[in-house]
Amino acid sequence: MPDTILAGRPQRVLLLGGTSEIGLAVVEALGLVPESEVILAGRDAERLAAAGSGLPCQVSTVPFDATDTAVHQELVDKLYAEGSVDIVISAAGVLTPQSELEQDVRRAATMIETNFTGHVSTLLAVAGHMRAQGRGTIVVLSSVAAVRPRKANPVYGASKAGLDAFARGLADSLHGSGVRVLLVRPGFVIGRMTEGMPAAPMSTTPAAVGTATALALRGKRDTVWVPAQLAVLATALKYVPRPLWRRVSR
Predict the structure, then answer these.
(1) How are beta strands 12-16 and 58-63 bridged, if at all?
(2) Closest CA to 142 of 67, 210, 90
(3) Which CATH class is domain 2-248?
(4) What residues act catalytically?
(5) Number of H helices, E strands in the chain
(6) What is the dihedral of CA 212, 214, 216, 217, to 10 degrees?
(7) What does the alpha-carbon distance between residue 233 and residue 113 come to, in Å, rounded to a whole number?
(8) What is the pLDDT of residue 246?
(9) Is 43 within 8 Å of 63 (Cβ atoms)?
(10) Which pLDDT belongs to residue 115?
(11) CA proximity to 210, closest of 84, 55, 49, 10
């Protein structure tokens, strides 16, 4: 699949979470030819149109709510009926402060549905079609938060840990089918979602995540950390004694 990008052939790309800063940065970094089509899937038609206006290729939009799992299979079936999809970028996500989740537990459920459950239902549908066509690439935006939950945001960490585990399992189930899953694990991303929050060590930007993801797609890696040195830190974090972790994790 990645060699078709290098060859400059038109691609059909689906971005789930069509207004995601990181997702859009990945699309931009792909260097798609003008004949390519990008399908932005999201809830806000006006924001989707604005996001698509800056892309140098054909853009269409479709309604998509990550929490409305009952219609995900139907949505994917319809998109594939209109033509094969080469790349699916699963980028839907929300980051709600833990203090707000504790005041309204329904928002915690919504965050789990958005960050985890909705990815599972849509990507299972996508994987079925890609397996049938014998090719395709799925990009899953995880996070360093998946490595170890922190006391400051256990719900967010749990949602990303679930997504990360699912993506790895999905990749294994698709091995040998011609379908590739690329798992992207950024650190703290300075952008709209984290506005007002103090930056963490090894912070990154949507553009940097996009560049690293596009580069990985042109190779054979199945996981990419952004920045790359975060892989070493993440490994070390697993072995920090729990009492100490409670003190240092924010």
Answers:
(1) unpaired
(2) 90
(3) alpha beta
(4) 156
(5) 11, 7
(6) 170
(7) 29
(8) 83
(9) yes
(10) 97
(11) 55
Scanning the structure block, which residue is given the tokens 């690329």? 182
Length of the chain: 250
Q: DSSP alpha helices (H): ranges in the chain?
A: 2-6, 21-29, 45-52, 72-81, 98-103, 105-112, 118-133, 154-174, 206-217, 230-237, 242-248
What the block records as the tokens of 67 is: 């929490």
Q: Tell me how far apart the alpha carbons of residues 30 and 18 are, in angstroms, rounded to a whole number.
A: 16
**Tokens matching residue 150:** 């922190």
Q: Does residue 154 have a cis bond before it (omega within 30 degrees)?
A: no
Query: Judging by DSSP bridges, how do beta strands 179-186 and 37-42 pair with one another?
Result: unpaired
- pLDDT in the model for residue 102: 94
Grouped pLDDT means (10 residues each) for the chain, 250 residues? 57 97 96 96 96 94 97 98 96 93 96 97 98 97 91 93 98 97 92 68 88 95 94 88 80
Where exactly are the structural domains of the chain? 2-248
Pairing state between β 37-42 and 223-226: unpaired
